[in-house]
Amino acid sequence: MIPALRVHFPATRSATLLAIALCAAAAPGCRSAVAHPDRSLGIDRYSPVRDLYRFSESYRVKHRLPALGVGVIHRGRIAGLGMAGERTAGSGSLAALDDAFDVASCAKSVTATVAALLVEQGLIDWTTSLSEAFPELRDSMDHQYAAVTLEQVLRHRAGLGHEMSRNVHWTGWNRRHAGKSPTEQRRLFVKSFLGRPPRRAPGREVSYTSDGYILAGAMLERAAGVPFETLVRQRLFEPLGLATMTYDPRPASGPPVLVSGHESGWLGITRPVPHDPAEYGAPPFGSPAGFLYSSVPDLLRYVGFHIDGGNRRPRLLQPASFRRLHAYVEGERFALGWAIDVTRDEDGRIVERSLYHGGYSGRSRANIWFAPETQWGTVIVANHGRGDDSITDDVFYALLREFELGS
What is the value of pTM for the model shown? Predict the structure, then answer.
């Protein structure tokens, strides 16, 4: 959390007005621009669901966020939803449950899920190597990459660095390749990055990287013969009815509304950052690694799809595929598209897995989590990049306590 702003001004009328303005801009949680109806907007569409507005408002104010949304799902049923705050700080436009938030790297689990779909359809295999996926690059790629498999890429074991870890790198790549489609930009990315020596030992060392997921997306769209974004929409979003999920930030004529991201500017003042398609592309070439937008209910439905593990309809994936996606490898903290922790009993046996992923774009934060054994899941979204993971951690553990799932 950013420390409270302490500024001393001379006792003049203009200085007093400036101090008030700084307080309102730096800490959107200290007051609302408009009176709130004391309920989550859009909750009427989810009448059997517990309204977590007051929970969301409390933690929105605590962490000085323009808007905070939360959701809880259990055994395939949405148990709680909460949305508080404004779409843009100071605008008076209140955020609603069906608004879309930037959930950034939460997109990585989507990429791995679509990989499982294509594996089941025989279009690619977990063991497909980079030299098999890109035969035209066999002579130009570093020889250490040749045998790296799709599964190793998705487990962050490809040996790639994490160059695409800052917004300036994403925007720079898009600017240098302006006019090319996302698929063409990914193709150039693959050629460029596989031509360099690996940063780590491919296939053996684990290192989190967005670069590898761009590589995986290029493998999948080549195997399917359609652009990655089209592939995901047709094979996953549409069958699951995830109407607000998209990689394209351009505003549509109707719902969902895409909330603004925010940054902390001069003196910690909260500054709205509108979504500019020219920055990253529309859709961005980095879709397989991030740049996913979704409402809280749709994120919960997606999490519920993973909790169910192929046991109910629509059965897009078989249970064996979910077991592979969620498998824990001793000594590693990544499954396929998810981070993973385990709880063991006194005999050392695994009794519960926690699968989760965070999202951070510099302008937003998000977290998705579920436990297959207990069939609980949560979603947290915020339209400010303030602070660090401790903010979403704080909200997450409070949600568990709210539903008496943790101490």
Answer: 0.90
